[in-house]
Amino acid sequence: MACKREDRFRRNTIAFWLSDEEKSQVEAKIILSGISKGEYYRKAVLGQEVTVIAGNYMSVRLSKVLEQILVHLQNGNTEEETLLLELVKQLLEVNKNAPAGNKGIYE
């Protein structure tokens, strides 16, 4: 069971409304940051720098997001989509050739 509100270090709640699109954008940034939602919101609201925590977990998450984008862009018709497709392919290749901690994610 959770501790009493008055026993918590952070005992105040702040809530706000987002559109579906805004929520998706914020959640994508949170996932890519590698920190908890609470920590991300605190840093963002207080104007502190939100840094990405690099590591194997982050590389796997980033790789999965890039692969989803790649699948979506496979049938790119416009010049911009074709360019973006090439950039995503290059990023995936760079991630494949990353240090030893990331080697097993494609096999």
Automatic annotation (TrEMBL):
InterPro entries assigned to the protein according to its UniProt record, in alphabetical order: NikA-like
Identification of the protein by name: Mobilization protein
Organism: Dorea formicigenerans
